[in-house]
Design goal:
With about 70 residues, the chain is mainly alpha-helical. It is built from four helices and two strands.
Length: about 70
Amino acid sequence: MILDTKQMHRDIIKKLNRSMLSQKYLCEQLEIGRSTFWRLSKGHELKVNTFLKLLEWLDRDINIYLKKI
């Protein structure tokens, strides 16, 4: 299985846009680095704790982002 970070990135951007919030705001709230968004958009791996923070913020099921190879 792999983590679909590009889908997670799209979902984060959608939620930020709907809420009219910035990436900087989200980073401050979740205590994550701004480079996290670049890594997500490029399909790079995340630290588990960062992934879990974003997953909780998105209020989504983990299976949405897990893909079989």
